[in-house]
Amino acid sequence: MTPQPSGSDHLPVYESLVRERGDAVAEARVVSEQAQHEASQALNWHGVALPEPAADTNGGQL
C-alpha cells in the first residue's frame, strides 16, 4: 500500500513546475468555482433579464 502524501511533504518537482509554468491545479480550481457560481445563478434566474416581447409592427397580419 502506498502512503498518502500529507500537507507537510516536500514536492520539489511539483514546486519547480509551479515556478516555471504556474499552478495549473489552483487555476483550474478558481475557474471551476467561477463556473459553479455562474451556473448556480443561471439556474436560480439571478441577474437574468427576460426578453421583451416583440413589437407587432404589421397590425397582427402576416
Described by strand count, sense and barrel closure, the largest sheet is: none
Structural class: mainly alpha
Which stretches are low in confidence, meaning pLDDT under 50 for 5 or more residues running?
none
Strands, count: 0
Distance between the termini: 75 Å
Beta-sheet strand percentage? under 5%
H/I helix tally: 2
Describe the global form. Answer: rod-shaped
Q: Specify the helix fraction band.
A: 40-55%
Mean of pLDDT: 80
Kindly provide the radius of gyration, computed on alpha-carbon positions and rounded to a whole number of angstroms. Answer: 25 Å
- Note the run of SSEs as H and E: HH
Fold topology:
Blueprint: H1 12-21, H2 24-43
Can you offer a commentary on this structure?
With 62 residues, the chain is mostly helical. It is 48% helix and 0% strand. The chain has two helices and no strands. The chain has helices at residues 12-21, 24-43. The model has no long low-confidence stretch (mean pLDDT 80).
